[in-house]
Structure formats: C-alpha cells, structure tokens
Write a structure and sequence with these properties.
CATH superfamily of the largest domain: Periplasmic binding protein-like II
CATH class of the largest domain: Alpha Beta
Helix content: 25-40%
Strand order of the largest sheet: 1-3-2-4-11-5-12
Order of helices and strands: EHEHEHEHEEEHHEHEHEHEHHHEH
Distance between the termini: 17 Å
Radius of gyration: 20 Å
Length: 342
C-alpha cells in the first residue's frame, strides 16, 4: 500500500469542517491507522511534526499521516472538541483545561521548557522592574506569554495592568510589527519570531535587543526548584485505544527533536520549504533553535514539574488550569524509549 502524507501549513475554516466531520478509524493493535492526524502550533514545535510527515517516520503505524497547524487558541479548541485528530501539541495549561472540561486527553510529554523573550528597544533593560510605564506588546491575551508576564511581574510586586502599558495583539506577528514600527518599546515574543525581529533590526540605528529570557527571570524570581514546562503533546481520545501507536509516536517524536537539534540548518530549510504558510525563513529558524530550551520528557516524569508550575499559574486564577490539578489519568503511562522502534 502506498503511504500518503499531507501537510496543511495553515488551518482554514474549510479544513476545520473537514476535521470535525470526516471521522476516522483506528483499527486494532498491529493494523495500520488509515489516517493519522497530527496538529501543531504555528511555531518551532511544528518542525518535529513536519519531520515525521515528510520523512514517513510513522509509516509503520499509519497509511496516511496529515499535519495541520492551529493558528490561534480558538481554532485549537475547535480541533480538540471536534475530536477528529490524534496527536496535538499545545501549551501545558491548555492541556490541563481541556482535561478538566471532561475531554479525555492524555499528556504524552513536555518538550519545550522556554521559548519566550522580552525583546526591547532599550539596551539597558535587564529586569521587568525596568519596564514600569513602558509600552509592551503581548500576543494572545490570557495565553502563555501573558500568563508568564503576569506571574513574573506580580512576584516582584508589579501590577502589570497598572504599572505597564500593555498592548494585547491577536497574534505574535502583530506584536512584532508594533515593535519594529516603534509603536511600542518592548514585546513578548516567542522563537523564532524573536530572532527574526532581532535580525531585521540589526542594521538599523534603532536596533532591538534580547533583554529578558523568561526562564532565567523565572529562576531569579520564583526559584530554581520550579521549572517551566511550557508545551507538550497530547493524545486525543480516539487514538487512546491504540497504545502501540501512541508508543511508536512518542519514540519517533523524540527522535525527530534529536534530529532537529543536531541538524539546525537542515531543519530551517525544511521549515521554510514545507511550512510556507508560517512565514519561516531557514536562517532565522536555524539560529533560533539554540534559544529554545528543548528537552523531551515523558509526562509521567514531568508530573512533579507540571504540578508545581500549575500551582503557581493557579495563583492568578484556577481557571488558568481548568479549576484543579489534573488527576492521574491525565498523564500517559509512558514508554520504554530504549526499545527499538519498528
């Protein structure tokens, strides 16, 4: 049987309808999945998923593998609630929210532990306390960039809604545009956009600076005992009857991350060629990978970090994690990564 692969670089409304209503079958253990759907965010976490699809790394478990990109949290919610996907990469707190809403997802791993930076027009900025009364662009109000900014601020006695002049934007690109146009002095940006903005400004008189690394600021303010498990991948209910498929996905996803980190130039070229809707350029993507804290940790092994992180997020509001810490069933049982992949 010929293996089929499909990449959808930007998820549009027509595709959402297809995802919600097309259905899918998972078969029994050992059988190929007719159609395996992976959903990733519009950033570097799409690169390992794209590698799996482009290189047919899941050919032992699926006849067709499809990658979709969720462009904003609203569409992510539609995908998860609709249920016609198998593996979805998302911020960790959103995974907790979906689980606590009764959507029986299971967290497989945490792979990114920092991706956020405060990019500034002022080379003297070193801490958030330096930003009082300054204009800051923040993408996705209520999402991880905003939550991290709020926690790091309040822990230092700063009220971000009073002491900062916050400009919320509908997506990271708008925040970057405001910063490059000089309409704000600072922006909270994730990679590779942070690196892209810095490269664009490098030859200008009003160049920009990588002022604050959020995980370093977190360690300084919160302490080094509590880490920041930012994002990972979950298994949606329809695939949970196939632990053989889940286990192979975990193994191959880990190998994809390892390949990406060992081959940043090739990863950048792949992202530019195969994910054109995300606006990736090979050079900035390759350079940006070193500014992301990658560490593939299975959910069972990241649980202590997750619960400590969630507990701090919940100090802002329990709604941020869906009302409670997730129970045991949230954490996938894990897989022996030393076992040879098929």
């Amino acid at each position: 049987m010929q293996r089929r692969k499909k990449l959808i670089a930007l998820l549009g409304i027509a595709t959402i309808l297809l995802v919600v209503f097309s259905g899918g079958a998972t078969g029994t253990e050992g059988e190929l999945i007719p159609r395996l759907v992976i959903v990733a965010p519009p950033g570097p976490l799409a690169i390992p998923a794209a590698y799996l699809v482009i290189n047919n790394r899941l050919a032992a478990i699926a006849a067709e593998v499809e990658l979709m990109i969720w462009p904003n949290p609203e569409i992510l919610t539609a995908i998860v609630v609709g249920g016609d996907a198998d593996f979805v990469t998302m911020p960790s707190n959103l995974a907790s929210i979906f689980y606590n809403r009764g959507i029986g997802i299971q967290l497989l791993d945490i792979s990114v532990w920092n991706i956020l930076y405060l990019i500034s027009s002022d080379p003297e900025i070193t801490t958030l306390a330096d930003l009082r009364n300054e204009k800051i662009a923040v993408p996705f109000k209520g999402a991880m960039p905003d939550l991290m900014l709020q926690i790091l601020s309040t822990r230092q006695g700063i009220d971000p809604f009073v002491d900062f002049n916050l400009h919320y934007t509908p997506d990271p690109r708008h925040a970057a545009q405001l910063l490059l146009a000089g309409k704000v002095e600072h922006a909270v940006l994730s990679e590779p956009l942070a690196t892209t903005v810095l490269l664009k400004s490098a030859a200008r008189l009003d160049r920009l600076y990588r002022a604050i690394r959020f995980d370093v600021e977190w360690t300084r303010v919160v302490g080094e005992d509590i880490r920041t498990p930012i994002a990972g991948t979950v298994a949606l209910p329809r695939i949970q009857g196939r632990p053989d498929v889940i286990d192979e996905f975990i193994r191959q996803y880990r190998l994809a991350i390892e390949w990406m980190l060992k081959n940043p130039k090739q990863a950048g070229l792949m992202a530019e060629k195969h994910l054109p809707g995300l606006g990736f350029k090979a050079g900035p993507v390759a350079l940006s990978l070193q500014y992301i804290t990658w560490n593939h940790v299975q959910a069972r092994d990241a649980r202590e970090d997750l619960e400590a992180f969630f507990s701090i997020l919940a100090q802002l509001s329990l709604n941020i994690i869906g009302g409670a810490l997730p129970s045991d069933e949230f954490y996938y049982r894990g897989v022996d990564l030393e076992q040879r992949s098929r």
